[in-house]
Amino acid sequence: MGFTLDFWDYLTFAVLFFIGISFLGALIFILGLPGRIAIARHHPEADAVYAMGWVGFLAVVPWIQALIWAFKPTAVVDLRYLPKDVKRETDAMISRLKGKAPPSSEPEGTDAP
């Protein structure tokens, strides 16, 4: 190529590599932030917030909406379910998103055969 690589050239490559890896790490952290907030706050729709946070990188507005949604639980009340059923489903979803075993689905105070 007509020139030799010395210490400073290799140092430049190493710094550029480190900056690139740091940028990717920061991007992964920021894109997953709405989902992690929703999971930590036991949001009833944490899986949707999680997905919207990752898909929102294509445009900034959906990611911002996912971040706001993570802090504000929905006010929709479905009268077909009792509050205990909704809480049980939410806990199971949060456990699944965290990678843990879901809590037992048997109601308290009943003896299973």
Number of domains: 1
How many helix segments? 4
Q: What is the strand content?
A: under 5%
Q: Shape from CA axes?
A: elongated
What is the number of strand segments? 0
Please compute the radius of gyration using only Cα atoms: 22 Å
Major beta sheet, specifics? none
- End-to-end distance, in Å? 79 Å
> What is the mean predicted local confidence, pLDDT?
84
- Overall structural class, as computed from helix and strand content, comes to mainly alpha
Question: What is the H-and-E element order?
Answer: HHHH
Give unreliable regions as ranges: none
Work out the helicity level.
Answer: 55-70%
Characterization of the model:
By secondary structure, this protein is an all-alpha fold. The chain has one domain. It has helices spanning 7-40, 46-55, 60-71, 83-98. Helix 2 (46-55) packs antiparallel against helix 3 (60-71). The longest helix has 34 residues, at 7-40.
Quick structural summary:
The protein has 113 residues and is mostly helical. The protein has helices at residues 7-40, 46-55, 60-71, 83-98.
List the helices and strands and how they pair.
Blueprint: H1 7-40, H2 46-55, H3 60-71, H4 83-98
Helix pairs in contact: 1-2, 1-3, 2-3
What are the key terms here?
single chain; 113 residues; mainly alpha; 0% strand; elongated
